[in-house]
Known about the structure:
The structure is a homodimer.
Chain A: H1 9-18, H2 21-26, H3 36-54, H4 58-64, E1 67-69, E2 72-74, H5 79-89, H6 107-120, H7 129-137, H8 140-151, E3 156-160, E4 176-179, E5 185-195, E6 205-211, E7 224-229, E8 231-233, E9 239-242, E10 245-250, E11 261-274, H9 280-286, H10 288-316, H11 327-330, H12 339-371, H13 375-410, H14 422-429, H15 439-450, H16 457-474, H17 478-506, H18 510-543, H19 549-566, H20 574-577, H21 582-585
Parallel strand pairs in A: 3-6
Antiparallel strand pairs in A: 1-2, 4-5, 5-11, 6-7, 7-11, 8-9, 10-11
Amino acid sequence: MAVDYKAPIKDIVFGYEVIDSYNILNKISLFKDFSENIVITTMEECAKFAEGVLAPINSIGDQIGAVINDGVVTMPAGYKEAYNKFKEAGWASISLPQEIGGGGMPIALSGGTLEILSSANLAFGLSAGAISAINFHGSDEQKSKFLPKLVSGEWTGTMNLSEPQAGSDLGTIKTKAELAENGSYKITGTKVWITFGDHDMTENIIHLVLAKLPGSPEGTKGISMFIVPKILINDDGTLGDKNNVQCLSIEEKLGIHASPTCVMEYDGAIGYLVGEENRGLHYMFTMMNEARIWVGGQGLASASAAVQGAAQYARDRVQGRPVGMSKEDAKNASIIEHADVRRMLLTIKSYVDAMRYLMFDNQLMLDLEYFGEDEVTKSLGEERCAILTPITKAWLSDLGVELSSLAIQVYGGMGYVEETGIAQYLRDARIAPIYEGTNGIQALDLMFRKLPLDNGQAMQRLLGEVTNQIELMKNGSDLMVSLAKELEIHVSKLSEVTMWLATKMLDGQLVDASAAATPYLKMFGQVLGGYYMGKAAVLAEKKLKDGDNEFYSDKLTICKFYIQQLLPIASGYASAITAGKEDLFNIKAENF
Amino acid sequence: MAVDYKAPIKDIVFGYEVIDSYNILNKISLFKDFSENIVITTMEECAKFAEGVLAPINSIGDQIGAVINDGVVTMPAGYKEAYNKFKEAGWASISLPQEIGGGGMPIALSGGTLEILSSANLAFGLSAGAISAINFHGSDEQKSKFLPKLVSGEWTGTMNLSEPQAGSDLGTIKTKAELAENGSYKITGTKVWITFGDHDMTENIIHLVLAKLPGSPEGTKGISMFIVPKILINDDGTLGDKNNVQCLSIEEKLGIHASPTCVMEYDGAIGYLVGEENRGLHYMFTMMNEARIWVGGQGLASASAAVQGAAQYARDRVQGRPVGMSKEDAKNASIIEHADVRRMLLTIKSYVDAMRYLMFDNQLMLDLEYFGEDEVTKSLGEERCAILTPITKAWLSDLGVELSSLAIQVYGGMGYVEETGIAQYLRDARIAPIYEGTNGIQALDLMFRKLPLDNGQAMQRLLGEVTNQIELMKNGSDLMVSLAKELEIHVSKLSEVTMWLATKMLDGQLVDASAAATPYLKMFGQVLGGYYMGKAAVLAEKKLKDGDNEFYSDKLTICKFYIQQLLPIASGYASAITAGKEDLFNIKAENF
């Protein structure tokens, strides 16, 4: 009875064209052969795996969940087998460099596979962060020791940042590292919120752990990064003794029950320093963008899967007499004939498209940053990715919750019954606004790190690109002109509040800016969605001249609906942005 | 670790003054002595019961839930004892008429107790609908046989409307009623979504069942209402044989686990016709307003309780360095010193106040409708209640979900852990937009039944009252003038789209109107919230001259925040309202 997920391959393929990925990536020698064919083949293969292997265990993973006994975490039935297939197919490493055994594909391509895999099973989300960290910052010895089996998926990796007293603020971590024999370290401390900190799908788990060396500087500047394997590795590469690391407990969570969230105890565990001392947080940050986009993708994936379930239910459920329909016709009318049900479905579908374009483009910019061959390309990628990432993470993950909840509404009473499977999407999606930096932190990142980039010029360049898109549309059909005008209203308002914020920050009124951070990010996301919908509308209109008219005319409707009916909320945030800190701090803490 | 709920008595008492309840109710002879003292005493007593008895079993009710064995539903530990205290205190019947054993208080007063009881334990929600139905429409014999024990709480009542094929559309019910001996009937059929259809807290349960008599008209005009006791009652009033009614199963739900949602099987069960044949749906509708306001109240209650937990967590959790604070001060700074956390808390608090004023006023209008002694009063109550009810039901219940989710966000990672208790509010609140008529149905009700009332004059009178409030504020302080101006922008926009809709409906463009229903209701709710906040602001400013300045200056801040920072979203719905049906129906059902 759970949602019968079918990967929206055509929508995904269209997304890669909307963001002009082929032209842009083909200029990079690594990706000179990247093509629509590759996208189609990859998504079709990924769909087979996701629909055939991951989706069928999604409900059972939710109902049974990961369990812990005597410090050993056991995955629900079917997960180990699914993981083996995942590993064999190489889905974990599709966008990792070929020289370390990865697929060598652009990061942008992993956007589509991420959506499909996460739509099928959100809990099945193993981060590739540890691989990147070792690859970027580890020694040659560490790379040859750990990377091959991590990349092949024979082992999995974790990121150990938080501690009970140190969540969003890592400056206060207490885990200690002390020099031991052979240049290794002894790691002691408790880490929390460790995703897949323990499980039984692989023989070994490689933990990346942030810890403090004796005498290191206070705060974030005194944090080092260590590799701590669950099972120690002998010199000949075989598995040796168990390390002194243990999963103490797993959290009982609202959702993603098949993703064990572990409390990890390091009790003099042997660890190996990555890179230089006290540079651990910096190393973590280098892979933050990828991880944050990935979490935004979970929001997209939840909504994308949920709307499929809702649409199917709406087509099947015969009920009521739609306004304007004769009694006779209404006898077999399913609820999808009600305007209000269509509004719910179209709202989700429109947002899903906008979310997808933003995520793909963000990853494309990461490709430019990482693999661009000239300074102009690299710096465009870097600045654009810097701005887009907090928006992708927060706007998409908030929408994932809102839209999964809307999908429940389409089901009526059946949506509230767990058996239907639709409620799981809301419960699973609710994690995404929280982890990898809460959405409040994303908003502060956008305000205080991204808005001031290159003295505000980076932001101006992005807004300039949106304006160029508007000008382009103004030279198009009547529909494009009318969409351009609507978009222009909200982009102008966004530029206006951006200037207001820049002025405030230059005046040192930082608290006023911090008070504006979340509504500013929401407004920015809503407007960027309109920008991408404008691009999609232009493309769909062009394509309409070729065959397959229905697909492209539907896309045009979706773009129009977004720009005319969803986008206008954007300007409603403006007055909250420019309201300043006053009201927020007028009330004493104890009076809240 | 669950939320330590304290009833917000002062806020509730203030609410009754905002809606001018004393002046209005004292004009009705039944309520001539209704006073702030009565409100305070009632809320204090209710708070004691809710905090001391209901809140402590809220978590266990969620974790254990109601269970069924061999057709018998057993409540979680503590619920039967809690129910006995609830019954003894008379909380179920506080607003029922004195002549049938109720408390004789205005319905408006039950708004405050509903908020408090539901905040403490949302699942503990037993509807009084069956009592009203029998009282309004039953025979004298039925009243004397069933009412005393229902009103005293010795028995509970249920409403049996839906069937598997008949949810939102009751015209298609199949349950049959056939005349049997002594003028009784035999009822046969399956009913679903029956809240507290079975439980072990009372000896008997009185079901009100909709069924069709042989040869009755098709559709909603052929439905009759029957009283079907779980245990038959002997002529001497003692309990007799078990009736042929059985709970087949209970639903596994996302939330309100302690509220058994039953599938009920009637297999030739003995039932008694209420009132006339084929008038059943009409009888149901007469008590629909109360029930729908009550569900809106559950949205309010969820948000009201959730923000308490979030505020307490935010005061306790020390983390991070708030923007603009010195490193030294930040060492002991809890997250409530972060502007963004304050924005989340103030957003919830502001909405909760607006929701409360709307609900209280809606109930006050119901008091005028039921108990008003002149035609002018009664018809004002009736028309105002007609318009406000769908808004109270839908706007409050949607906000209940959104704001409970926002409360989770304040907790960060801890919010996602069930142990904290905050996730339960989201899970519990999610039912309210669905039951007692989905929010989509509320929106259609507002559009097609309420907007055309008295040829649109009823709506104009309500909007006129909002305009009067604006004029009043324009003669006030600078702050009042500025709030009035903001409010005016959105009321004008609302009037504009209302006119557009009225014109469409006069032109017979009903599908365009139906397409606009949900955004229209959302916009209406947001603007009405602003109207009540305007009233509250005027009152708070006046009160500021007396003592207790902090409470009233906080209220003023809350009103200002709502009108300046939350209300502006309202006009963002306008273009969706006037967009018409086109986009929604441009896409084929199979393409969604």
